[in-house]
């Protein structure tokens, strides 16, 4: 079918991606993509290399300001900033906004790693003016989170939040990066997933080792978040991961 034969934009995008391209088109497009990817990495490294020790806060972009988890994320970020850490978020609304807001109110470093999306994402007003970065590529943005974070605080969220969580655990599990604190906030939200991991992945299918459950902690308060961070780094000289 021709592109104009499709009624909706999603079908048109799929058809355009699948259409046969000449070798010259493939080579030209891929070459320019490489330069764009390199530019995002260089800009990210140069901008993030000066921020100092930070903790990343993840969670849903759809969480409203009156939601208890939004309010808790704000308190966590405030407490983190007062403990001497900066805060990194995805730069958008919801939990991300709460994280940047808490850091801003606490007088700490407030970083936003924004991503161009067709919905939901727009940068929030609580990011430091010189620390608001924009990305086109998810994988470049994810490298920045892992490379420049001394801990992950994972609030309730959707697919994107789960993606960041499981990638971090995979990198630590496979020893591609050094271990750092991964803190899941909200026992009621996370307990179902953790029970499934224990009963299905660990006990039934044996696709995960029981020791891998030690890669994260589950907490419910801002005090517990800071306690986990401080307990972990009490053994080390805290410095950025580069």
TrEMBL record:
Catalytic function, reaction form: AMP + H2O = D-ribose 5-phosphate + adenine
Gene Ontology BP terms: cytokinin biosynthetic process
GO molecular function: AMP nucleosidase activity
The keyword 4Fe-4S appears for this protein: no
GO CC entries: cytosol
Keywords annotated in UniProt: Cytokinin biosynthesis, Hydrolase
EC number: 3.2.2.n1
Domain of life: Bacteria
The keyword tRNA-binding is assigned to this record: no
Primary enzyme class: hydrolase
Family: Belongs to the LOG family.
NCBIfam families in alphabetical order: Rossman fold protein, TIGR00730 family
Entry protein name: Cytokinin riboside 5'-monophosphate phosphoribohydrolase
Phylogenetic lineage: Bacteria, Pseudomonadati, Bacteroidota, Flavobacteriia, Flavobacteriales
